[in-house]
Each structure stands twice: as C-alpha cells, then as structure tokens.
Amino acid sequence: MTEDKVKRAYKTSKNIYDDVLTQGNWLAKLYIKIFWGVDDNKLAERVLGFIPNDFSGKLLDIPVGTAIFTYEKYDSLKNAEIVCVDYSEEMLHIAKERFAKISNKKIICEQGDVGALGFENESFDILLSMNGFHAFREKDKAFEETARVLKKGGLFIGCFYIKKEKFLTDLIVKAVLSPKGWFTPPFQTKEELKHILESLYTQVDLYSEKSMVWFRCVK
Ligand SMILES: C[S@@+](CC[C@H](N)C(=O)[O-])C[C@H]1O[C@@H](n2cnc3c(N)ncnc32)[C@H](O)[C@@H]1O
Predict the structure, then answer these.
(1) Ligand 1 centroid to 65 CA: how many Å?
(2) Which atom of ligand 1 lies closest to the CA of 10?
C-alpha cells in the first residue's frame, strides 16, 4: 500500500534526513547543488519569517518531520500553542527528542494523516506545512483539510516542490524520490498550485525559486 511505502521511506531515511536537508555533509551539498539549486535552510527561514515573533495563538505544523528547521523558532514562541503532526512515528520520535531539549514545554506531538485531521473546523490561527505537500498521498484532501482547520483570517504558510521548473529536479523526483516513497505524485505546476490556493484563500502570496515554492495565504 502507498501509506506503507511513505512510512517505510521516512523510517529508513530518518537518520540521514537532517543532513540531506540542511546540507550537513559534502555529499548532501553536492546532491542539493546538482539536483535542486535551492538552499532549504534559507527557504525555511523565509517561511518561518511569516510567523510573528510575538505570536500567541494556535499553530498546527504538519508535517513536523524531525523539527530540524522549526525547533529553535518554537522555543522562542513561549505564548503560542503548538501542535505538531506527522504520519511517520519515526520522524515524530526525533522531533519529540528535539523538543525535550528546549525550554518551551507546551508543544504537543501526535501521529496523524493530513488527509483526515482530527481537529474541529477553524481551530488554528496558523497552519505551517514545510516540505509536505510533495510527500502527501491524497493532495486534494490535504488542501481541503488544512483549509478546514484554519480560522477565518488565519495564515496558511509553507513550501514544497513544484514541477516543470528545473529539468534535473524533475528527473530525480521521477527516477528516485517518487519510486522510493519520499515524494508522491501527482505534483502541481506553479500555475496549478496558484489556482488551487486561490480557490481556498482570500489572499495568496506565492514565490518561487527553481523547483520550490513558498507561500503565505490568508483564509
Ligand atoms: C520531507 S519531510 C518534511 C518534514 C519537515 N516539515 C521539514 O521541512 O523538515 C515530509 C514529511 O511528511 C510526512 N508525511 C507524509 N505523508 C503524510 C501524511 N499523509 N500526513 C502527515 N504527514 C505525512 C512524512 O512522514 C515526512 O516526515
């Protein structure tokens, strides 16, 4: 089943995930340089920059992954209620270990599927989804569910892969990342994504660099 493929993919890569995304060794640097040409650290900074430093509402992070990009920001958001969800228990376990070492103890972690969120309508002020939508299986449901649990006037922010912007990225996604389960098709072009976001949000600010988009949408 596809679910098992996704879980297996993130289970087997949990120990190398952080280094690949943050370019923690020369092989990861080379991989990112050749196939992506975009620095995920900078991308994460831009997305997290959409969260006010004095944010004191409710934030849902899905998928939290290992929290490699977010734990420092969350440590500083002492007055916020933060809920972190991921489909992979293994990735979530690493996130929990990270959160155990920071001083903000009000972060809740739970296993879940973005396509069937167990939260009431309009529960969150901010919904953060970094590097998730290219991995999600049921993308229509994921867009619907993330919009459903966000309050009116709330922010949907994040980043992920879009197709047809860089040949070598599309190639590695098709030849390796999708067959292995780290990514799950179908993917959107920038125009297709804009159309989807505009159907769900009143204000859509969409930016891109090579094959990555980042966005700030208001519900
Ligand atoms: C590339 S990682 C991104 C993690 C983190 N946001 C980051 O930027 O480092 C993708 C994550 O999506 C999770 N995932 C895949 N399908 C999911 C689903 N249906 N619901 C929730 N999480 C899912 C995977 O388990 C994995 O941890």
Answers:
(1) 5
(2) 25
- Secondary structure (DSSP) of the chain: -HHHHHHHHHHHHTTTHHHHHHT-SHHHHHHIIIII---HHHHHHHHHTTS-TT--SEEEESS-TT-TTTHHHHHH-TTSEEEEEES-HHHHHHHHHHHHTSS---EEEEE--TTS--S-TT-EEEEEEES-TTT-S-HHHHHHHHHHTEEEEEEEEEEEE-SSS-HHHHHHIIIIIHHHTSS-S----HHHHHHHHHHH-SEEEEEEETTEEEEEEE-
**Model pTM greater than 0.70?**
yes
Q: Does the beta carbon of 86 lie inside 6 Å of ligand 1?
A: yes
pLDDT tens-digit map of 16-46: 888 888 889 999 899 899 999 999 999 999 9
Ligand 1 pocket test: which of 1, 6, 23, 111 has the largest number of ligand atoms within 8 Å of its C-beta? Answer: 6
| Spacing, Cα 203 to ligand 1 middle (Å) | 25
CA-only gyration radius of the chain, Å? 16
Rounded CA-CA distance 62/113 in Å is 9
The best mutation among 51, 94, 136 to test binding of ligand 1, ranked by most ligand atoms within 8 Å of the C-beta, falls on 136
pLDDT tens digits, 59-109: 999 999 999 999 999 999 999 999 999 999 999 999 999 999 999 988 999
Residues in Cβ contact with 172 at an 8 Å cutoff, skipping those fewer than 6 apart: 35
